[in-house]
Amino acid sequence: MGKLIIARHCESEWNKAGRWTGTRDRHLTEYGFKKSEEMAQLLKDTHIDYAFASMQVRSIETLASMLNVCEQYNVPTEHARELNERDYGDYTGKNKWEMEDSIGEEEFKQLRRGWDHPIPNGESLKMVYDRVVPYYLSHVVPKVQEGNVLVVAHGNSLRALIKYIERVSDEGVAELGMPFGTLIFYDIDSEGRMITKETKAIDMQVNA
């Protein structure tokens, strides 16, 4: 078995503006590109045999920046909509902090961190889990059995994935996060569950 390495894309234009991006395609900021390159230094001693990213440009740009800095130019790469960010429905594009004032702190917390909390015309984290995990098991785990695999995706698609890998309870998912500027290195078993875990991070300031 190789290593499974997961990373969240770096700062996008709407991260900087504090807006829910969800399924919208927004590019990395200049700061986002810079931090993607810094994050790549955490991989300098790791050969990547295969890579995955979502279909969204911010994750694709992050992955490309990382592999370029590592001078790993010929890594086979697969893009999948199953790894896309959570659909924020009617809240897409709205300012998070203005929404918190509008809907109240408790509803805001449930909306962002809850497991099966509905969002108008969008996805709960449970719905994200239901598309991410089957893809992970059918596509990613077999590649990890052959070598080191890098997955670059989004805050919520990675939270859903970590829930499965680390056997986090439905209640515990509220405390589960995937910070910017962080790589998680896993040894996993044949079912894609965690055996060991190592976290590496760069300094990063961003609107999450």
Q: What is the name of the CATH architecture?
A: 3-Layer(aba) Sandwich
CATH superfamily: Phosphoglycerate mutase-like
Q: What is the CATH third-level topology name?
A: Rossmann fold
Helix content: 25-40%
Helix/strand structural class = alpha/beta
Query: How many angstroms does the end-to-end distance come to?
Result: 33 Å
Poorly predicted ranges: none
Shape: globular
Q: Strand order within the widest sheet?
A: 3-2-4-1-5-6
Let me know the average pLDDT: 95
Largest sheet: 6 strands, mixed
The Rg value, from CA coordinates, equals 16 Å
- CATH class descriptor name: Alpha Beta
Q: How would you spell out the order of helices and strands?
A: EHHEHEHHHEHEE
- Assess the beta-strand content as a share of residues: 15-25%
Query: How many β-strands, per DSSP?
Result: 6
- Structurally, the number of domains stands at 1
Structure notes:
- By secondary structure, the protein is an alpha/beta fold.
- It is built from seven helices and six strands; from the N terminus they run βααβαβαααβαββ.
- The protein has a six-stranded mixed β-sheet with strand order 3-2-4-1-5-6, sandwiched between helices.
- A hairpin with a 5-residue loop joins strand 5 and strand 6 (194-201).
- Helix 2 (30-40) packs across helix 3 and helix 6 (125-144) crosses helix 7.
- The termini are far apart.
- The mean pLDDT is 95.
